[in-house]
Amino acid sequence: MAATTTTTTTIPSLSSVLFSTTTTNNKATPKPPQFSMSMPHHKPLLATLTATLAATALLTTSPPSLADQTYHIYYGTAASAANYGGYGGNSDKKTSAEYVYDVPDGWKERLVSKVEKGTNGTDSEFYNPKKRTEKEYLTFLSGFRQLAPKDAVLNNLALSDVDLQDLIAGADSVRSEERKYENGQVYYDYEIDGVGSHSLIKVTCAMNKLYAHFVNAPTPEWNRDEETLRHIHESFKTVGSF
């Protein structure tokens, strides 16, 4: 009787296959990176951002406006040289004022001498202490009942003012305008754009006198303070006009 040979085939169990596959997959899949929740401190970056914000604030902040300039009123008496300084006159300038104009706060008054008052009629003067040639002053002459033609008035004023003569002689432009107020009083306005300087002049006649108010400034100061200087120019009025 022939012998029977039996062949045995080993079939892996399902659990072993799963276990083997799981183990292989775990080895093939990389572990996800581990992140730390603590944030590093960046002090240099913080300081840079702070400085940038501060600079931006300075650039976006508007500079102080000239509209913030404050003024006080000057009361001029146009007293004669004999009565200059209160001699024989009323010491209350507001009561005896013949004209007024605004003076920027911070400007200084230059005391006018009797000689100046008697020769060229200078009655008052104020200047910017930061630049003395930036100034306003008033002159007056007695015996004028009405204004002459505009060109004649300006030339006559220059006869007693050497600086005005030079300014007109080298001027790039000279503009003039006539204005009449409600009370019928006539004012002449002049604007002279000269070499290195600018001048505004306002002239009128009242009480048998001719009054001339000057506002002068070097070109750099004019470019910087034009709004203030024009305000001063416009503020000049004689009694009866204010």
TrEMBL record:
Matches recorded under InterPro entries: Mog1/PsbP_a/b/a-sand, PsbP_C
Pfam families, A to Z: PsbP
GO BP annotations, alphabetical order: photosynthesis
Domain PsbP C-terminal: 96-237
Molecular function per GO: calcium ion binding
GO cellular component, one term: photosystem II oxygen evolving complex
Database matches in PANTHER family: PTHR31407, THYLAKOID LUMENAL 19 KDA PROTEIN, CHLOROPLASTIC
Stated name of the protein: PsbP domain-containing protein
